[in-house]
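Key idea: predict the complex, not the pieces.
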Amino acid sequence: MAFNTEQIIGREHIDDIEGILSVSNTDVAEALHAVRSNYDTIFSWSYDKGNRPKLNRLYEKAKTSMWNAETDLAWDTVVDQSKLVAEQKLLMGPPLRTYVDLKGTAFERWGDREWDQLAIESQNWTLSQFMHGEQGALVCTAKVVESVPWIDAKYYGATQVMDEARHVEVFAKYLDEKLSGHYPINAHLKMLLDDIIVDSRWDMTFLGMQIMVEGLALAAFGFMHAMTTEPLLKQLLRYVMSDEARHVAFGVLALQDYYGELSGPEIRDRQEFAFEAAVRMRDRFLQQEVWERMGVPPRDVIPLTLAAPDRAMFQSMLFAKIVPNLKKLGLLDAGDGWLRTKFTELGVIQWENLSDTEEEYAAFQLAEGERATT
Ligand SMILES: [Fe+2]
Ligand SMILES: [Fe+2]
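Result:
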């Protein structure tokens, strides 16, 4: 059965700010969060390594690409977050107050101190969400190892579990040692991770995590890697991206084989899930928790931030890896091309002809001389 936009994302219009802000975290003080999953753990008695040669190649690559978060990164780098914010200002284009009239808004009384604090909070928030997303990847990949029926995919998945542990580790360490505060997980990201984990179909874990969440992460890390002037963060992101590209390629390879076997209605289910995930990820970038911490009402200020001239471009850029991969999987145009229509509404369809990650993942590998000696 096909669903409409409201049934899929809980609101009729994608840009309905009230609808977006109506989702917020209620249990931020809890130290643990339990999600009951319901899926079959699959044993495979076929141990023929290399039955799926591309997955096998990826597994062999992963084995030799492991790095050590403690010893390969320059943790002795001194990070001055205020100085970085000042440098970032020059790179990131004109601040809000130069293109929107802030008279009569919650920002009216803000001076340099508040704007600088906003930039610092924003960085703390962004890295915190990366860390939480990485933990989502860690648990989802563990689930993949259990639920995927092919031995080559279980082998590869096991290497990814290790990669993700390292990613959680580096973001947590960077936040603790180099930045100035943590944020709880964003409500939209949490909702998405919960949805991915709850689903009993193994391929939905791949689609939600490897294609959507990690596809977005690859683009977002790439953007931050290009923009940051902080050498440790640059190095950290470079290392994480070299793994992330392989993870997204894993999703593309696994699903390509499987989607050919699915019926029209089953494919439509996947299209709807991809759309839902895309909207959740877009919603999270409104960073409502930052506004709350800065003491300004999110519903008053978010419409102002959306008016930024480069906002639409930034938002759409996050999907630069996702759209070509969904196209390669046939999800963009399957059935009546429903997902193409939805991605056109979201303003992200222009990326469809970029390289997919199965084609380009090797380009992200760390070069010989680039690896620190351990
Ligand atoms: Fe990761
Ligand atoms: Fe990953």
